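Quick one: structure for this chain?
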Amino acid sequence: MNHQKWDIEQVEKMQIIRKPIFPTTLHQDLAELIRDHFLAIPAVDTVLTVNSCARGQAVPESDLDVAILVKSDTTAAELKTMEHSWQIYLQNQPTFLKYRQSSPFAHLHLDIIDGNYTPAKVEKGEPIDYFEIEIGNQICYSAPMENAGFYFQTLQSKWLPYYNEELRLQRLQMTKDACNYDLDHIPFFIKRELYFQAFDILCKAFQEYLQALFIANKTYPIAYNKWIKEQVIKWLNKPDLYPELSPILSISNIESNEINDRVKDLRRLLSKVT
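Got it. Here's what it folds into:
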């Protein structure tokens, strides 16, 4: 765990605090239940609403997504106890049961996090790394329930507005290399008539392209498979780029050379990312 001391004045200057906006009273009641339960635990620093409710874009069918940020010196045993007690507490909670019964799509996603974000090596051919998305959703775009804890504010001071330049350039190159590797691989699947596998890899390469695009623009994303229009047009301020993106995954006949054509289009866009 990180025991580094922080200058409180520096932390206060960096803090960016949002307020959650809930689409229904059921969402809000459950969020407040979670807040009251976890803030009574000394090891908890901040209860964070994340994703749509944090950004005021949730609808009645939206999930409730919450991240419980524990203090930096919390032990593994304390985390395990906290998770176990929460599951027991939740079983017979009327508020939770009422929320679950409100819609077949009403889900609660709750994660207990320690704030230790460690960038992994981006390997060619391996699943996408979600380092930037985790920081984006949990630190950059989250909304604290009640007050923002001191540890949460120190994490903001560490990771915002973006991580250090040396790491950024390393991850940008690794992500571009991974995307190019997948694009290189697709024609081999087409030759073997493995069209659906080729399309699957194209979708992965498309997300790797978006990852590289966000890294190049020093902007944390929230996802690579949704909210693409908002993120590209508003967050990255690239309205002219967006119309070029949807055709990449628009295939009229999967058993054709179309996917190879899309590979060329995506590679052209990737070459502009610097």
